[in-house]
Structures are given as structure tokens and as C-alpha cells.
Specification:
The chain is mainly beta and 152 residues long. It contains one helix and ten strands; from the N terminus they run αββββββββββ. The protein is globular and about 60 Å long.
Length: 152
């Protein structure tokens, strides 16, 4: 039980960056040997202005016990802010990689960039918090859609 408390505390303090993070869920379990923690049911993650809600969350730790991957699945909704953009959306899955500071949403991604009121749709959308770049991928049956308004 003590190890679970330490892992939970570590997750809360180090998720994504050096900001305070709150993770809530219906249940929590950890595998100390595999270095994986699982949160299930009504998962809500909040870090600064970023928020993710999902059915489940898996956190993978590296050899130094620092998080290397966060993977939220099932009815995912999210709000992610970069220096110049604010994204709100939904997907089947979203992954955050703390070392590269990248979010990768996949599976029926629907997103709005709220600063410019742009609608983005695709099978996979990545947001790079360091470079500020976004990349959208589609498929043959579901092409990329980018909807925006132009003042002429």
C-alpha cells in the first residue's frame, strides 16, 4: 500500500511538467515491476490549463522512475494550450510524451483551435508544444478536413 501511495503521489507531482497536476479516477492500480500505473473510470487529468477526460489512463515510467508516456483511452475529451493556440476536442485515444512534449490524438479526432476558430478533423493529430507545430493525418475513407473562415 505504501508503494501505491508513493507512485500515486509521484504521478500527481510529475505528470507532463513541473506544474501541479491532479488525476482523479474511480480506481487506481500499479505494477511496480512493470513500472506502469492504471487509472480507470471517469479519469480526469488537470495540469495548468490543459485537461483530459477519458475512460482510462495508463502511465508508463522509465528506468529512472520518471513518466515517459501517458495514454488515455475511451471517450477522450481534451483541452490543450500552446503558446499561441488553444485546442479543444475529442478522440478515441490521446498520448502525451513528456520528453518531447507532444500530444498525439488518434481515432476519429475532432478538434477546434479556439483562437482562430478553425475546425480540424482526421484520424491522427499531433501537437508539438515545443515547436508549436501541428500535424493532421487522414485515411482514404476519412480524409483530413480543415474548416476555417476567411475575411476578404
Amino acid at each position: 500500500m505504501k508503494n501505491i501511495f508513493i507512485i500515486l503521489l509521484f504521478c500527481s507531482l510529475s505528470l507532463f511538467a513541473k506544474e501541479q497536476v491532479t488525476v482523479s479516477a474511480d480506481s487506481f492500480e500499479a505494477d511496480e515491476f512493470k513500472k506502469v500505473s492504471y487509472f480507470k473510470g471517469s479519469v480526469h487529468i488537470k495540469k495548468g490549463s490543459d485537461e483530459i477526460k477519458a475512460d482510462s489512463l495508463m502511465i508508463v515510467f522509465g528506468e529512472d522512475n520518471k513518466p515517459i508516456k501517458y495514454e488515455a483511452k475511451g471517450a477522450v475529451s481534451f483541452k490543450v494550450k500552446t503558446e499561441n493556440q488553444n485546442f479543444e476536442g475529442s478522440s478515441n485515444q490521446i498520448i502525451y510524451e513528456p520528453l518531447t512534449k507532444k500530444y498525439i490524438a488518434s481515432g476519429d479526432v475532432n478538434m477546434v483551435e479556439t483562437v482562430k476558430n478553425q475546425i480540424l478533423k482526421g484520424e491522427r493529430i499531433s501537437i508539438d508544444r515545443i515547436s508549436g507545430k501541428s500535424k493532421i493525418s487522414g485515411s482514404k475513407n476519412r480524409p483530413v478536413k480543415f474548416i476555417f473562415t476567411v475575411d476578404e
